[in-house]
Amino acid sequence: MPALEAILETAIYVADLRRACAFYEDIMGLRPLEKADRLCAYSVNERSVLLIFARGGTADGATADGDNEIPPHDATGQIHFAFQATHDAFDAWDNHLTAQGVEILSRTSWMRGGKSMYFRDPDENLVEIAASPGLWPMDGTTA
User: What is the mean predicted confidence (pLDDT) over 99-107?
Assistant: First the structure.
Protein backbone atom coordinates (compact mmCIF):
# COMPACT_ATOMS: atom_id res chain seq x y z
CA MET A 1 0.00 0.00 0.00
CA PRO A 2 1.35 3.51 -0.76
CA ALA A 3 2.35 5.57 2.28
CA LEU A 4 0.57 8.68 3.50
CA GLU A 5 2.63 11.39 5.18
CA ALA A 6 0.16 13.51 7.15
CA ILE A 7 -3.21 15.22 7.08
CA LEU A 8 -2.53 18.32 5.02
CA GLU A 9 -5.86 20.12 5.36
CA THR A 10 -8.62 20.23 7.93
CA ALA A 11 -11.89 21.85 6.86
CA ILE A 12 -14.62 23.37 9.00
CA TYR A 13 -17.89 24.94 7.86
CA VAL A 14 -19.23 28.06 9.54
CA ALA A 15 -22.36 30.19 9.52
CA ASP A 16 -20.52 33.53 9.60
CA LEU A 17 -17.26 33.43 7.65
CA ARG A 18 -16.10 36.91 8.69
CA ARG A 19 -16.63 36.16 12.40
CA ALA A 20 -14.88 32.79 12.18
CA CYS A 21 -11.91 34.20 10.26
CA ALA A 22 -11.51 37.00 12.82
CA PHE A 23 -11.40 34.39 15.61
CA TYR A 24 -8.77 32.23 13.91
CA GLU A 25 -6.64 35.26 13.00
CA ASP A 26 -7.01 37.41 16.13
CA ILE A 27 -7.35 34.76 18.85
CA MET A 28 -5.47 31.80 17.36
CA GLY A 29 -2.89 33.85 15.45
CA LEU A 30 -3.11 31.91 12.19
CA ARG A 31 -1.57 33.38 9.04
CA PRO A 32 -4.02 33.81 6.14
CA LEU A 33 -3.05 32.06 2.91
CA GLU A 34 -6.16 32.95 0.92
CA LYS A 35 -9.42 34.77 1.49
CA ALA A 36 -12.44 34.62 -0.79
CA ASP A 37 -16.19 35.02 -0.46
CA ARG A 38 -16.66 31.32 0.33
CA LEU A 39 -13.49 30.42 2.27
CA CYS A 40 -10.47 31.48 4.26
CA ALA A 41 -7.36 29.29 4.27
CA TYR A 42 -4.80 29.49 7.09
CA SER A 43 -1.29 28.19 7.60
CA VAL A 44 -0.80 26.23 10.79
CA ASN A 45 2.91 26.57 11.55
CA GLU A 46 3.73 26.34 7.84
CA ARG A 47 3.00 22.58 8.00
CA SER A 48 -0.74 22.20 7.53
CA VAL A 49 -3.78 24.19 6.44
CA LEU A 50 -7.04 25.02 8.17
CA LEU A 51 -9.79 25.68 5.63
CA ILE A 52 -12.81 27.63 6.83
CA PHE A 53 -15.74 27.43 4.42
CA ALA A 54 -18.97 29.41 4.54
CA ARG A 55 -21.61 26.76 5.22
CA GLY A 56 -23.35 25.98 1.93
CA GLY A 57 -20.72 27.86 -0.08
CA THR A 58 -19.33 24.74 -1.73
CA ALA A 59 -22.41 22.49 -1.67
CA ASP A 60 -22.65 22.77 -5.47
CA GLY A 61 -18.94 22.28 -6.05
CA ALA A 62 -16.41 24.91 -6.97
CA THR A 63 -13.49 25.73 -9.18
CA ALA A 64 -10.08 26.64 -7.90
CA ASP A 65 -6.71 27.60 -9.30
CA GLY A 66 -8.09 28.28 -12.75
CA ASP A 67 -10.63 25.77 -13.97
CA ASN A 68 -9.83 22.88 -11.63
CA GLU A 69 -13.06 21.33 -10.40
CA ILE A 70 -13.61 20.58 -6.71
CA PRO A 71 -16.53 18.20 -6.00
CA PRO A 72 -19.39 19.41 -3.78
CA HIS A 73 -18.82 19.30 -0.02
CA ASP A 74 -20.43 20.79 3.07
CA ALA A 75 -21.08 19.88 6.70
CA THR A 76 -23.24 20.87 9.63
CA GLY A 77 -22.96 20.29 13.34
CA GLN A 78 -20.22 20.63 15.89
CA ILE A 79 -16.95 19.04 14.88
CA HIS A 80 -13.75 18.47 16.85
CA PHE A 81 -10.18 19.07 15.77
CA ALA A 82 -6.90 19.66 17.59
CA PHE A 83 -3.95 21.98 17.22
CA GLN A 84 -0.65 20.56 18.45
CA ALA A 85 1.52 22.64 20.79
CA THR A 86 4.67 21.93 22.74
CA HIS A 87 4.49 21.22 26.46
CA ASP A 88 6.41 24.48 27.01
CA ALA A 89 3.75 26.50 25.13
CA PHE A 90 0.72 24.79 26.68
CA ASP A 91 0.37 27.03 29.75
CA ALA A 92 0.98 30.13 27.63
CA TRP A 93 -1.91 29.08 25.36
CA ASP A 94 -4.11 28.55 28.42
CA ASN A 95 -3.24 32.05 29.70
CA HIS A 96 -3.67 33.65 26.25
CA LEU A 97 -7.07 32.09 25.58
CA THR A 98 -8.33 32.98 29.06
CA ALA A 99 -7.10 36.58 28.65
CA GLN A 100 -8.99 36.76 25.34
CA GLY A 101 -12.22 35.72 27.07
CA VAL A 102 -12.27 32.20 25.60
CA GLU A 103 -13.88 29.78 28.05
CA ILE A 104 -11.78 26.66 28.60
CA LEU A 105 -14.30 23.82 28.91
CA SER A 106 -11.90 21.12 30.05
CA ARG A 107 -8.25 20.54 30.86
CA THR A 108 -7.04 16.95 30.59
CA SER A 109 -3.83 15.11 31.43
CA TRP A 110 -3.32 11.90 29.48
CA MET A 111 -1.69 8.67 30.70
CA ARG A 112 1.21 9.03 28.23
CA GLY A 113 2.05 12.50 29.59
CA GLY A 114 0.24 14.70 27.07
CA LYS A 115 -2.17 17.46 27.99
CA SER A 116 -5.26 18.86 26.28
CA MET A 117 -7.50 21.86 26.71
CA TYR A 118 -10.84 22.21 24.98
CA PHE A 119 -12.85 25.29 24.00
CA ARG A 120 -15.46 26.33 21.45
CA ASP A 121 -15.00 28.57 18.43
CA PRO A 122 -17.75 31.06 17.46
CA ASP A 123 -19.62 28.30 15.57
CA GLU A 124 -19.49 25.94 18.57
CA ASN A 125 -16.87 23.63 17.03
CA LEU A 126 -14.84 21.91 19.73
CA VAL A 127 -11.24 23.07 19.39
CA GLU A 128 -8.44 21.34 21.26
CA ILE A 129 -4.90 22.41 21.97
CA ALA A 130 -2.89 19.28 22.64
CA ALA A 131 0.57 19.26 24.20
CA SER A 132 2.53 16.50 22.56
CA PRO A 133 4.28 14.10 22.77
CA GLY A 134 2.16 12.11 25.10
CA LEU A 135 -1.24 11.67 23.45
CA TRP A 136 -0.85 8.85 20.96
CA PRO A 137 1.50 5.84 20.75
CA MET A 138 3.19 7.15 17.60
CA ASP A 139 4.11 10.60 18.96
CA GLY A 140 7.24 9.44 20.77
CA THR A 141 5.82 7.90 23.94
CA THR A 142 5.58 4.24 24.87
CA ALA A 143 3.35 4.15 27.96
Answer: 97
